[in-house]
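Continuing the batch. This is chain 6 of the set; chains 1 through 5 are on the previous pages. Same settings as before, nothing changed between runs. Recording input and output for traceability.
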Amino acid sequence: MSEGAVSKKFDFSYAERGVLFDICDCSLDKRLSFYSLNREQADRFLKRLKHIRKMNWGQFMALDRERGVTPEIPGSDSYVMIDSQNTSDIRLGENYYYHFRVEQKGLFRVFGYQFGQLFCITHIDPDGRIHH
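Output for chain 6:
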């Protein structure tokens, strides 16, 4: 692993289980939520979620950074942002906070955390305004 790289840790007990999405913890801040999406962005967002839903957690986490998941570094702005929206009752121990790109090229990203089989979406950033 290169210097400064963060390992792609996840709850391995769900490696063979499909990735499901939850938006109950999604920020309601207009610029960081689904409220900010126009119709074209919403279509691309849903298309990507449907694509990922065909994968299990092991496959999703094995994708390269441009097509897959980027773990958040504990203490980073993005990590703290996700943590502030995390309402799960199991917050002791290891937290698995990530973002993924909606498209290979571009800044459209989705932030959230793993909670069991779920990827809980906390923030949607269609234009790279979050910590970029």
